[in-house]
Amino acid sequence: MTFTWPIALVGLLLVPVSFGAYRWAERRRTEAQARFGNPDLLPNVVDRAPGRVRSLPIVLLLLALAAMVVGVARPHATVSVPREEATIVLALDVSRSMKAKDVEPTRLDAARTAAKSFLADVPEKFRVGVVSFATRAAVGVAPTEDRMLVEAALDSLLPGEGTAIGDAVALSLQVGQPQVETGEPPPPRAIVLISDGARDGGRVEPAEAARKAKELGVPVYSVLVGTQDGVLEETLTGGLRRITRVPPNPQTLEQISSATGGELFAAGDREELSLVYADLGSRLGTRDETREITDVFAAAAVALLLIAGTISALLFRRVP
User: Fold this and answer.
1) What's the longest Cα–Cα distance across the chain?
2) Residue 92: which H helix or E strand, with range?
3) Backbone conformation region of residue 254, classed left if phi is above 0, alpha if psi is from -120 to 50, else beta
4) Are 130 and 150 in contact (CB under 8 A)?
5) In degrees, to the nearest 5, what angle opens at C-alpha 285 toward C-alphas 113 and 254?
6) Residue 133: strand pairing partners
7) Whole-angstrom Cα distance, residue 151 to residue 255?
8) Helix/strand/coil (H, E, C) string of 182-206?
9) Which residues, in sequence order, are CB contacts of 277 under 8 Å at separation 6+?
10) What is the sign, positive or negative, of the torsion defined by CA atoms of 121, 124, 125, 130?
């Protein structure tokens, strides 16, 4: 929290000073009563003594004073506010290793299902596109607000060969380029890169694609799918079976995300993958903004004053 006039916070010293003065006055009052009467006879005259409840209105008043002082300092806080518009490109790896079944039913199917759930976590006005990549990258659907088109593009993804990660990022930057009028700031963009391994083929180096994304201010959030026990089982010609270990490799994804200001998430199973998408949906659906919150402290001060007055009037038949 920051303050426009931090010097005003010196006024908070009034709170402990005022409370100390109140306690001193209470002790003086008690001592004066003891000099002019017998405290042991007080229970015969009064049903019950207020005890600590007597101090409650004063404490509330002092808290209200503290809230007013902080309000005078004009505090600012960073809060999350909904984005009005943005463009997100989902870049899904459809390489051969995505057919591994360590994430049920397969890595690709789990990523596809979780991506559909992700669509429900971002605002409706967001434009979402789909890019698939194996040996080369291809556009599944250009960024659109039509969620049915996006889901249809996800359903049409089929496994291929290779893992052209650099091509996928480069193509996602192209298809996600917003059309804005001259002089208007472009809406924010982000790429969600879902893959299980390092680069295998492609024409664009991942480092070059990451550099371009950084220049354009487009963060790449990477989702690593799969477990270290992942294997790919294939039936070859003649009925022979080939088993290939396909553990996930985070190195390339981590480098891209780190270079562009994004983040790498690891999803070892279907449940974790869904949690990652939910987290990304909330992150991309909001933005941090610094706002003045003087009104919050002013409202708190008014509420405390009303509560203190009500307690004093009901319990003691007087206004503090």
Assistant:
1) 112
2) strand 87-93
3) alpha
4) yes
5) 65
6) 93, 137
7) 29
8) CCCCCCCEEEEEEECCCCECCCCCH
9) 114, 115, 117, 118, 121, 223
10) positive
Token pair in block for residue 182: 């001259």
DSSP annotation of 84 reads S
pLDDT value at position 287?
63
57-75 residue pLDDT tens: 888 888 888 888 888 888 8
pLDDT band at 94 (very low <50, low <70, confident <90, very high): very high
Compute the distance between CA of residue 140 and CA of residue 133 in angstroms, rounded to an integer.
10
DSSP H helical ranges for 225-316: 251-260, 270-284, 294-316
Report the candidate in 26, 13, 31 with the shortest Cα–Cα distance to residue 52.
Answer: 26
Beta strands in 69-116 (DSSP E): 75-82, 87-93
Q: What is the CATH number of domain 84-284?
A: 3.40.50.410
The domain ranges of the chain are 2-78+292-316, 84-284
Dihedral angle, C-alpha 255, 259, 263, 267, nearest 10 °? -20
Total residue count of the chain as it appears in this document? 320
Tell me how far apart the alpha carbons of residues 228 and 12 are, in angstroms, rounded to a whole number.
Answer: 57
CB atoms under 10 Å from CB of 59, counted, come to 14
- Which tokens sit at 223? 């989702």
Rounded CA separation 141/128 (Å): 9
Tokens 């996800």 appear where?
Answer: 154
pLDDT, one tens digit per residue, over 149-206 is 999 999 999 888 889 999 999 999 999 776 655 555 667 888 999 998 878 889 999 9
Per the listing, tokens 């789990």 go with: 110
